[in-house]
């Protein structure tokens, strides 16, 4: 029995070694298997994709070519559309040299030009062409001839043409279809004014929402410092000028704030008195100009005969009122600009707004006086008063254009010559965006008022704006510099659209509506002759629809809806409710944006506070433990990270493996070195388990794992300091059993939270163990049998722990 036991023991050992070698080889194969499997999978996928690509090559090429062709066509179309845009290159040049604020004027001028082109096409297509087809030759008296002065005065030869209201018939034109000139004239003017109003409202609302509703209410200094740079400026000289202007604005803004804070109560009262006096003076001046124009119109009316033929002197006298009106519009704004010399505004924007409001009030007073004179005096004196009003508006448009050209020459060219050659301290004049925009707004208002009295007046406006664009461009480039104080271009455009809509468009619409609703039309000329009011053409049309079957619903809508005051009251209430709802939504969004900004500020403060606390904590903490120094055969590695990190588990296993190889190279024939290598590998593996457990276990388990790892590390230090004390087989078996128990406890606690990196670490440990086993079994080493038996038992216990631990995955 003893012999059989002695024979069975080597067989069991060989069987165990064979099993361990197979296990290690399997683990080594599983390590290299993912890379081989991935490479094979990629090769198969590449082959399949190449096979599929051969089947769909023609379809893919065709679809790709179609997509490329469509993209190229889209790019070509966009490029052609940009090229065909009016004045595209000129706009880029002006924006690059003078900035967005000056560019706003030219964009606004282009926008008004498009308005007039649309107006001319509508009026010429639905009013003028049918009249010319019906009556090709105008009904001009024989004693009236073209003398050339009509180009400026609009009287004489033009009086009986389709240029004015009196040249259109009130009959139904009979041809391929019956064309009612009364309805065509009324609905064309009405639809055009409605479309203009809708376009202005939508443009103003869109711009207001974008630039005011959700805009940041930042201070002027912050806006100037952070957001006022104009990136459209590309000219180097303009960039340097813009930087200098921005620096000056910042200095002046800061000085104004300082002065505002230092102002005493008497100084504030003094400035308030200056403001009140300036407003009283400007208002009185505007009212005086309006009164003088009214008396001048009455003087002109007394010397004007109600006849179709005037002498040259009488035609020239009609230019007196337009000349005075244009002179007032040219001189008084310059006089208003002198108020800035003694007025003190804490905000430059308020100064600009004050100047704009004064100019708007002046122009509205002038237009209001003229409209009152036309509707109350001219309508009662002249037989064909609509044509007389149309002639007056024509003269105002022409003379205003002449004064604009003179303003470009005298106001800008001579000012530039004086500033550069005679009085150098004056310098080059600035391009006044506000004043120039108000001039074209005034001109457009004349066109809207005259659309009823002179349907072809938009043609004059088109020619006027087209020439004015090039005049202003040449004058800007040759004589002017960018404004030193440029406002926000987007908000300036919003303000200009708002001024165009109110009060100018609303005033022109009120004038046309009052004329059509209240004033009786002329009895001798025009399409509405013989009617009580212009709106009476709708009643005549309703009377004609009574005899037509199927048109009773139109008559009901007219009588019950259009002529009902309740309908307009309900429409007004609905509009007010919608406006109130949108206003409340806007206010809610503003408050929400304010809360979000405050939350961002608070979060920034919290982060700063936490960072400060963290820095203080890091400064106050001192390292409590130093890296373990291995004595004897272990060497300290300077690049080794701390043992507490999760990423050094692999490093520790590799260090144990390297240490084992160093001990084997020294060929120490003792059980101490072999047992020490075994213990190093097991301790490295235990530290890896403890570190992974620290990451994924609960706080209590982290503490226990840390304590276990610390105990194991202390045992390692004690063993390394014992000067190669002999490690008994019992201790090796005991450590292996402890490792097995810890593996079982870890598996039972949190098996689901174990990462895959633990298995890789254990594979590394097993590789080190396998290599150690091969070196121990080599005949060059003379190990003791008892030590080998203990080592094999420890490895067997360790293998069982490993198998049970792997079952947890």
TrEMBL record:
Its main location: membrane. One of its GO terms (cellular component) is plasma membrane. Residues 704-717, 777-791 have a biased composition (Polar residues). GO terms for molecular function: mechanosensitive monoatomic ion channel activity. The chain crosses the membrane at residues 102-129, 183-202, 319-339, 351-375, 396-418, 446-471, 492-517, 566-583. Coiled coil: none annotated. It is found in: Membrane. Residues 619-632 have a biased composition (Basic residues). Residues 384-490 form the TMC domain. The keyword Transmembrane applies. It is a multi-pass membrane protein. Keywords: Membrane, Transmembrane, Transmembrane helix. The keyword Transmembrane applies. InterPro entries: TMC, TMC_dom. Residues 619-647, 693-723, 763-809 are annotated as: Disordered. Belongs to the TMC family. This is Transmembrane channel-like protein.
């Amino acid at each position: 029995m003893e012999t059989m036991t002695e024979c069975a023991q080597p067989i069991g050992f060989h069987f165990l070694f064979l099993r361990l070698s197979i296990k290690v080889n399997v683990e080594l194969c599983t390590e290299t298997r993912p890379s081989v499997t991935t490479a094979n999978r990629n090769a198969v996928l590449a082959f399949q994709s190449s096979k599929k690509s051969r089947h769909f090559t023609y379809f893919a090429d065709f679809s790709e070519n179609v997509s490329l062709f469509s993209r190229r066509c889209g790019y070509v179309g966009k490029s052609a559309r940009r090229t065909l845009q009016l004045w595209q290159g000129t706009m880029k040049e002006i924006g690059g040299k003078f900035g967005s604020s000056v560019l706003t004027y030219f964009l606004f001028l282009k926008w008004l030009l498009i308005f007039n082109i649309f107006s001319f096409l509508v009026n010429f297509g639905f009013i003028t062409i049918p009249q010319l087809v019906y009556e090709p030759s105008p009904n001009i008296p024989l004693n009236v001839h073209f003398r050339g002065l009509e180009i400026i005065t609009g009287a004489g030869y033009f009086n009986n043409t389709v240029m004015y209201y009196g040249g259109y018939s009130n009959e139904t034109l009979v041809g391929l279809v019956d064309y009612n000139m009364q309805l065509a004239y009324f609905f064309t003017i009405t639809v055009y004014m409605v479309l203009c109003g809708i376009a202005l409202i939508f443009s103003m609302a869109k711009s207001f929402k974008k630039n005011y509703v959700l805009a940041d209410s930042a201070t002027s200094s912050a806006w100037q410092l952070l957001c006022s740079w104009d990136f459209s400026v590309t000219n180097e000289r303009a960039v340097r000028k813009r930087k200098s202007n921005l620096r000056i604005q910042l200095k002046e803004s800061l000085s104004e704030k300082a002065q505002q804070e230092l102002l005493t109560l008497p100084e504030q009262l003094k400035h308030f008195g200056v403001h009140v006096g300036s407003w009283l003076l400007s208002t009185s001046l505007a009212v005086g100009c309006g009164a003088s124009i009214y008396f001048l119109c009455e003087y002109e009316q007394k010397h004007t005969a109600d006849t179709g033929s005037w002498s040259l002197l009488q035609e020239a006298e009609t230019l007196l009122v337009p000349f005075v009106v244009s002179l007032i519009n040219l001189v008084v704004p310059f006089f208003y600009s002198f108020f800035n010399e003694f007025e003190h505004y804490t905000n430059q924007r308020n100064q600009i707004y004050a100047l704009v409001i004064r100019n708007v009030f002046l122009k509205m007073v002038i237009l209001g006086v003229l409209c009152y004179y036309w509707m109350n005096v001219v309508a009662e004196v002249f037989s064909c008063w609509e044509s007389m009003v149309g002639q007056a508006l024509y003269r105002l448009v022409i003379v205003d254009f002449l004064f604009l050209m003179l303003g470009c020459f005298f106001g800008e060219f001579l000012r530039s010559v004086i500033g550069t050659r005679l009085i150098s301290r004056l310098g080059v004049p600035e391009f006044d965006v506000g004043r120039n925009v108000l001039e074209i707004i005034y001109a457009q208002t004349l066109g809207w008022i005259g659309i009823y009295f002179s349907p072809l007046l938009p043609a004059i406006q088109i020619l006027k704006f087209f020439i004015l664009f090039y005049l202003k461009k040449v004058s800007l480039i040759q004589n002017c510099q960018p404004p030193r104080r440029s406002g926000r271009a987007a908000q300036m455009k919003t303000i200009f659209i708002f001024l165009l809509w109110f009060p100018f468009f609303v005033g022109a619409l009120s004038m046309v509506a009052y004329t059509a609703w209240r004033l009786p039309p002329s009895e001798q000329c025009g399409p509405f002759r013989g009617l009580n009011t212009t709106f009476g053409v709708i009643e005549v049309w309703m009377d004609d629809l009574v005899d037509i079957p199927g048109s009773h619903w139109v008559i009901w809508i007219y009588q019950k809806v259009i002529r009902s005051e309740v309908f307009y009251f309900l429409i007004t209430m609905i509009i007010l409710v919608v406006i109130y709802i949108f206003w409340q939504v806007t206010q809610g969004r503003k408050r929400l944006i304010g809360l979000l900004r405050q939350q961002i500020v608070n979060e920034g403060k919290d982060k700063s506070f936490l960072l400060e606390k963290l820095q203080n904590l890091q400064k106050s903490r001192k390292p409590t433990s130093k890296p373990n120094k291995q004595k004897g055969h272990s060497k300290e590695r300077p690049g080794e990270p701390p043992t507490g990190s999760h990423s050094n588990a692999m490093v520790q296993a590799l260090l144990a493996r390297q240490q084992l190889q160093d001990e084997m190279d020294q060929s120490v024939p003792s059980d101490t070195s072999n047992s020490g290598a075994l213990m190093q590998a097991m301790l490295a593996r235990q530290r890896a388990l403890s570190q992974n457990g620290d990451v994924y276990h609960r706080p209590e388990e982290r503490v226990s794992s840390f304590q276990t790892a610390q105990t194991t590390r202390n045992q390692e230090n004690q063993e390394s300091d014992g000067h190669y004390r002999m490690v008994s087989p019992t201790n090796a078996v005991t450590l292996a059993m402890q490792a097995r128990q810890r593996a079982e406890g870890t598996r039972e606690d949190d098996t689901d939270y174990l990462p895959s990196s633990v298995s890789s670490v254990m594979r590394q440990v097993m590789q080190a163990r396998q290599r150690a086993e091969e070196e121990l079994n080599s005949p060059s080493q003379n190990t003791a049998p008892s030590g080998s038996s203990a080592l094999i038992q420890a490895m067997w216990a360790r293998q069982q722990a490993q198998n049970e631990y792997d079952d947890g995955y």
